[in-house]
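Acyl-ACP thioesterase (Nocardia terpenica), 259 aa
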Amino acid sequence: MTKQLVVENQALRPLAPVPATGHIFDVGRRLGTVELDERQCLRVDGVARYLQDAGVDHLEHVGALREHPHWIVRRTVIDVIRPIAWPAELRLRRWCSGLSSRWCTMRVRLDADNGGPIETEGFWIHMNKESMSPSRFSDRFFDLLATTTDEHRLRWRQWLNEPLPSAAGARFTLRRSDIDHFDHLTNTAYWDGVHEFAATAPDLTAGPHRYVLEYNRPIRFGEDVRIHADRTAEALTLWFAVDREVRAVARIGELPGRP
């Protein structure tokens, strides 16, 4: 089996189901009109913002925000089984699907009374902001997350490693409002670019489909960012690059095995 096929299989692997027991953060939201596309459905960049807010609310809910305030995300997976349309009441359930002492994968399932579900998973790293290095979880927080997974030695494995294509890319304009407290482009801002290019591949998003976005190196305000695109029959791949150095890679493709 080739390395490319192994990566492809990883990028299509099913996400863990909602656990029967253990700690699950369960919260409701009303779908906001600012997150809608032209069909009045929840956009993928809107999904990313719900995930960001749910993460902070989850930490606050369990009393872990003060000890664990700083995080970066290395990968986000978003499976749109069926679009969520406005108006809708959302239910978000968030739990841990794998962890180590300094990072974890967090699943979030979005259900609604008008569409869905949307299944997601993020690979989150707890950071020490001063040293900009991964920081250990408290024992209490680790034990809480561990109640929904047997994977306690989680390792990072990159899924998207295709080389940057030679064709020129399209400019991706940065805004100061997209910069976070690390002075990096916030992870949700990348999804604006993904949403724009997804519109060029409606056949891939007509049925159940998956987005994968991996962050390799941060983007800073003022850098000249280009999005390079490559389309095959199975997927649309996007590279966010600065001077042809790849900073992030995204993949959009149909979700096999779904009706």
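The CA atoms of residues 24 and 95 lie 5 Å apart. The chain has two domains: 21-147, 170-254. ok done for today
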